[in-house]
Amino acid sequence: MPDWLSSPENYSPVKQKNTFLQQNRGRLLNLLSLFSDKTETTSQPLNRQNSFIQLLTTITLILLTSLSRNISFIWIIYMYQFLQIALLPKLNMLTILKRIPINLVFVLLFILPSFFLTDAKTVIFFVLKTNLILIIVSYFMNTNTFFDIIIVLKKCYFPDIIIFIIDITIKYLKILSESLYAMTSAMELRSVGVNRHQYQSLSNLFGSLYLKTKSTALEMYSAMEARGFTGNYHFTRTKQRLNLSDITQTCITIFLITLFFN
Fold this sequence. Notes:
Blueprint: H1 3-6, H2 20-34, H3 39-42, H4 51-67, H5 71-86, H6 90-110, H7 120-143, H8 146-155, H9 160-190, H10 198-226, H11 244-261
């Protein structure tokens, strides 16, 4: 046996910190969480709401918030919205609450010049209204899956081709995000030490992703031709019955409309 085989060798690879792939894996996980089925939310009795009624109440609250000039009315909607958020499971509630400071910072950055051009009270009132609208939209998106939204669009008689494009786009994003996350995980597991060709690895990664996207699109087009796609979008209808939560939400919305005009 050669001597070099029996001699001990302690090799400690140099770790590379803050690589591009490691930084964006968390973002990919956040993107994939958007497509997850929110079964924990819909399993709660108080949150098992009809998607169509929830969309109507969401649009109504946004319109009332946009048209209102009464600060007390805005605070009432704030209280109602935070009460709804408090009834959500812990994970969903924290997801919405974490977005509120981020949304508020972006709103302040966009309207920062207005502080020097108009009255400060008007600007603060506008910030409160904009932040409230973002909270309302965030609550709706967090308590409904993309499939629920597509069903609501179908009930609102949206054109089938638009619904089909939205549905295919969402499914493409999910498939490509899963593929990209799997490839980044594989590259990280196979990498040892310092990668001196990060940009080359990145270009190879996106090249492989492009080829997968192209092959998937061609396969889907061939499948649509084989099945005789005529432009009509069909999906499995799920019946959503009205419950106590829907009736309560509708009554509160009617009360807010009455309060707005009084």
